[in-house]
Design brief:
There is one protein chain. Helix 4 (76-86) links the parallel strand 3 (68-73) and strand 4 (91-97). The protein starts with a strand and ends with a helix. The protein is an alpha/beta fold and 207 residues long. The chain is 40% helix and 13% strand. The longest helix is centred in the middle third of the chain and has 13 residues, at 105-117. The protein has helices at 18-23, 27-32, 50-61, 76-86, 105-117, 122-128, 139-144, 164-173, 195-206, and strands spanning 4-8, 37-39, 68-73, 91-97, 150-153, 178-179. It has a 6-stranded parallel β-sheet with strand order 2-1-3-4-5-6, sandwiched between helices.
């Protein structure tokens, strides 16, 4: 049985969705051209907590017989980690791509202001923007990922929201994890030349 790949897009209380992040950029088409079974659902755009995202995405996993490989992107890395831990019998590989920096006061202040401008209640902002390497993920939860192959794909070049220090912290926290070739984050203007490289990187990791 071939593995399914679950793509968890980025964004946080904004208008980002799977269509814009994974399909319009050509990533889904690239992966399916290699024969992969690709799932690319939308994350809840107005989730009141990370547990809400896990419950929503978990409905897609509950229908699978396994195995499933998860690719999380930016703020979607949090949902990807928590989903991996919630379905240990199904998820056997995890790729954290362009992980969003969650422990930088300036970044969190800017993100908070943006979320409030989208109408996010301050209490929800506080629950989502925990001061940790990945928002909403504890050090113990990162350590627990050592049971499966984990890879981290950095933003190249780095930017204030996707800093190199986050990649280094994840590699240091998750025993046995490894770094993959980085790229700009889709759907930013700098991404298109890296499409083929990213598809090959994901395919090689999944297989």
């Amino acid at each position: 049985m071939s593995a399914s790949v679950l793509l968890v897009h980025g964004g946080l209380w904004d208008d980002m969705d799977a269509e814009r992040f994974w399909r319009t950029t050509g990533i889904v088409a690239g992966l399916t051209s290699h024969g992969l079974d690709v799932l690319a659902p939308d994350r809840p755009q107005r989730a009141s907590g990370w547990n809400v995202e896990v419950a929503s995405l978990g409905e897609h996993l509950a229908k699978r017989s396994g195995p499933v490989r998860i690719v999380g992107a930016s703020n979607g890395c949090t949902a990807a980690v928590l989903l991996t831990l919630a379905f240990p019998e199904l998820v056997d590989r995890l790729l954290l791509a362009w992980p969003a920096t969650g422990d930088d006061p300036a970044v969190n202040a800017r993100t908070r202001a943006g979320m409030l401008s989208y109408g996010c209640p301050s209490g929800v902002v506080d629950r989502l923007l925990t001061d940790s390497v990945l928002r909403g993920v504890t050090a113990d939860e990162l350590t627990a990922l050592a049971r499966i192959p984990v890879a981290v794909l950095p933003s190249v070049p780095e930017n204030p929201s996707h800093q190199r220090k986050t990649v280094d912290a994840l590699l240091g926290s998750i025993r046995g994890s490894r770094e993959l070739a980085g790229s700009p984050e889709p759907p930013t203007p700098g991404f298109p030349p890296y499409l083929d490289q990213l598809v090959r990187t994901i395919v090689e990791f999944v297989n």
